[in-house]
Design a protein that fits this description.
single chain, 295 residues, mainly alpha, Serine Threonine Protein Phosphatase 5, Tetratricopeptide repeat, two-stranded antiparallel ribbon, globular
Length: 295
């Protein structure tokens, strides 16, 4: 079964606003949708990374059109290619080499024949096989999710995620989920290894940073936990749970002003949950302490 997410669930997972999502749809960077599969989430994550690098939507659209024209057999560059920002330019990785997306110019010193080979040969033979392998990896990743949802034996779930990683070593989602399985089993060393691999595979994956922060917090390493939570917030400033945990750490470290800042940020993002009640209580404690100190 293909895992799908409602529009609201996808927005919460990726920490993207409805306004931003509608803007990308209006700019025809993504198609309007009520539900999202794994490929659609990949496209949105690529757009989020480019947006965070302050690449204008018009430039993203030009790059996508240029890549479709230049690379035969590539229909959706956002999901089929690795796009990233280098300053204000969009680069694409082809066979481990960087190319400027709009111009097609290789950034290393290769002759025109080499460029032609990359543009002509690779799309004819390699992308299809790569896409099929990614699809197989996605199948195993989705199987892992389905097994988790149905309460299957842990070893079956692990094997599914390991197969996804074998087919696609860049499957950060599978790496994080394996890390979480081992974290829950109290195998913190192995969990840390998977979380770190996920952050190395995708440095902009906020969830991997957050989960690694939880692991360090569990170990009592508050400094490293804080570092990872703050990294998650740099990637995704509206990550409510990261604000919550950072507030707790600052409060425990007797840095009330910083704690107040993150409690308030958390309450703006999550004003009505049971955790919001705790956040308000802690915020009131800090304010009362400030009043006492000021007397």
């Amino acid at each position: 079964m293909r895992q799908s997410f409602t529009r609201e669930a996808a927005r919460r997972l990726l920490h993207v606003s409805e306004k931003q999502l509608k803007s990308w749809e209006q700019q025809k960077l993504v198609q309007p949708a009520a539900t999202y599969g794994f490929r659609e989430l990949l496209a949105l994550r690529t757009l989020i990374k480019l947006r965070n690098s302050r690449v204008p939507p018009q430039q993203i659209r030009r790059a996508i059109h240029a890549l479709i024209e230049k690379l035969r057999d590539v229909k959706d560059p956002l999901t089929e290619l690795k796009l990233y920002a280098d300053g204000k330019r969009i680069r694409v990785e082809l066979e481990g080499r960087a190319m400027e997306a709009e111009s097609g110019q290789l950034l290393l010193d290769f002759d025109p024949g080499e460029l032609s080979r990359l543009l002509e040969f690779r799309p004819k033979e390699n992308p299809r096989a790569e896409r099929e392998q990614r699809q197989h990896a996605e199948h195993w990743f989705q199987r892992g999710l389905d097994l988790e949802a149905t309460g299957a034996p842990v070893q079956e779930i692990i094997e599914a995620y390991e197969k996804a990683i074998e087919l696609d070593p860049g499957s950060a989602g599978a790496l994080v989920n394996l890390g979480t399985i081992h974290f829950n089993a109290r195998n913190l060393t192995l969990a840390e290894r998977y979380y770190i691999r996920a952050t190395e595979t995708d440095p902009e994956y906020a969830l991997a940073r957050f989960d690694l922060g939880n692991l360090y917090d569990e170990r009592g390493d508050r400094a490293q936990a804080l570092e990872q939570y703050l990294a998650a917030l740099r990637i995704s400033p509206n990550y409510a749970d990261a604000h919550y945990n950072v507030a707790l750490l600052y409060q425990g470290a007797h840095q009330p002003m910083r704690a107040v800042q993150h409690w308030m940020a958390y309450l703006k993002l999550d004003p009505s949950s049971e955790w919001a009640t705790i956040a308000r209580r802690e915020l009131d404690k800090l304010r009362e302490a400030a009043v006492v100190r000021g007397r």
